[in-house]
Amino acid sequence: MTTTEQAVPVGDSSKSAGNSQSSGSSKFNERELQQKAKDHLWMHFARQSVMEDGAGVPIIVKGEGHHIWDSNGKKYFDGLSGLFVVNAGHGRRRLAEAAARQAEELAFFPIWSYAHPNAIELADRLASYAPGDLNRVFFSTGGGEAVETAFKLAKYYWKLQGRPTKHKVISRNVAYHGTPQGALAITGIPAMKEMFEPVTPGGFRVPNTNYYRAEEMGFTGSEEAFGQWAANRIEEMIQFEGPETVAAIFLEPVQNSGGCFPPPPGYFKRVREICDQYDVLLVADEVITGFGRIGNWFASTTYGFQPDMITCAKGMTSGYSPIGATIVSDRLYEPFKHGTTSFYHGYTFGGHPVSAAVALANLDIFEEEKLNENVRKNSPIFRSTLEKLKDLPIVGDVRGDGYFFGIELVKDKETKETFNDDESERLLRGFLSKGLFDAGLYCRADDRGDPVVQLAPPLTVGPAEFDEIEGILRGVLTEAWSRL
Ligand SMILES: Cc1ncc(COP(=O)(O)O)c(C=O)c1O
């Protein structure tokens, strides 16, 4: 729980030294790549020591469907869609061709005072998918920038309304909203922020919707009642801070960090009421939950609530090119329509022509192959397949929605006792991440909250693949228990 980095399975470069066959399109062989990585590559959210200590880093060279291959030629099930990104699956030639066509026609032009057809078409398309009057699209290059945009826009909007003191933002414990300083202020993981303090001021935290751990938050009762209780903590925080100081609340429809917390029934209805009562903007951070992950274009639709803004990225292009967006309601956009007002904010690569072209082609694939429908149809089967693992002594909880599930690991099922930092270190980093990877399943073993294994496969898979995932997890989790 003290660690913040992604548990990375360390590779074994000695096995493949000198293998020049499997380094993908690289002109360097495995040993050369490992050396260059060790000398120059700084991984994200990771311990560089895996390189320094000589074990090397797993180098992934190819993807096809829901599979990836490493530089040793070994095949893995991509149980995390890269990083909740490759929703349509790997190896789609059509998306590569869309990128190539656009790069040839117009590789780049900014949307700073200009436009290009793909940005216009994609904005129109996103507006048509977003719920209610979310009709205006501000592009960025990723999720953190989309969150940063929403934060700045919320502050500016209230200033334009003559309410300049509304600048604080509320979010939930253990929630991850990105790394820019503003987004970091919204992120609710202290261990990820302490080294960068002071972050942007004005971030306040309320309880998340982890029903499995509700008692530890001081709540006992039904899930419905927990939803009301958790939503009411937002009202309490608004009152503590003063409604005239609070600009917005940022919530993921299903919270990723901590291990896939879905909203209890009625939660978002109550949150919306509170936001309306106190004039606080509701931002749905759909960087993960958008684009089919929860069975609809946006999970706000799945849970029947109307946000004032949606932030999204990842699955929009299935990762074939980077893009992000903040989708804004007519009400929020209104003051920007007139006169000399403009939003002094932007990114050189925001709404990049190639990324926008890829997004449009990717969304075509979603429609043609009915990927959202596939998720809605199969999600209950995915859940019940993973729930079989509850017969293992180490599995405390299985939760999530759509194609997005977390399995919480515990030391004692009866008491829900979790692992201490040392055990967590040995379990997640020492064994599980590498154990799952060696067994052919790339997924996430994470301890930003309590230890969880997270699954978010491409939306193309179905029951046969769920069984495959369950089989691998069963073997590795059984062994993890025996090693404790
Ligand atoms: C909910 C949420 N918001 C924001 C981000 C940041 O997105 P990015 O890494 O594209 O900046 C993420 C990344 O995982 C996320 O899950």
Given as residue ranges, the uncertain stretches (5+ residues, pLDDT < 50) are 10-21
Helix segment count? Answer: 15
Mean pLDDT: 94
Distance between the termini: 17 Å
Instruction: Give the SSE string.
Output: HHEEEHHHEHEHEHEHEHEEHHHEEHEEEH
Give me the CATH fold name of the largest domain.
Aspartate Aminotransferase, domain 2
Range of strand content: 5-15%
Instruction: Evaluate the radius of gyration.
Output: 22 Å
Indicate the structural class.
alpha/beta
Overall morphology: globular
Number of strands: 15
CATH architecture of the largest domain: 3-Layer(aba) Sandwich
- Range of helix content: 25-40%
Ligands in the structure? pyridoxal-5'-phosphate
**Strand ordering within the main sheet:** 4-10-9-8-7-5-6
* Tally of individual domains: 2
In short:
This protein has 484 residues and is α/β, with parallel strands linked by helices. Helices cover 37% and strands 15% of the residues.
Structure description:
This protein folds into two domains: 13-88 and 370-483, Aspartate Aminotransferase, domain 1, CATH 3.90.1150.10; 94-368, Aspartate Aminotransferase, domain 2 (3-Layer(aba) Sandwich). Helix content is 37%, strand content 15%. The protein is built from 15 helices and 15 strands. A seven-stranded mixed beta sheet has the order 4-10-9-8-7-5-6, with helices on both faces. Strands 1-2-3-13 form a four-stranded mixed beta sheet. The longest helix has 21 residues, at 463-483. The model is unreliable at 10-21 (pLDDT under 50). The chain binds pyridoxal-5'-phosphate. Pyridoxal-5'-phosphate binds at residues 142-144, 147, 176-178, 252, 256, 285, 287-288, 313.
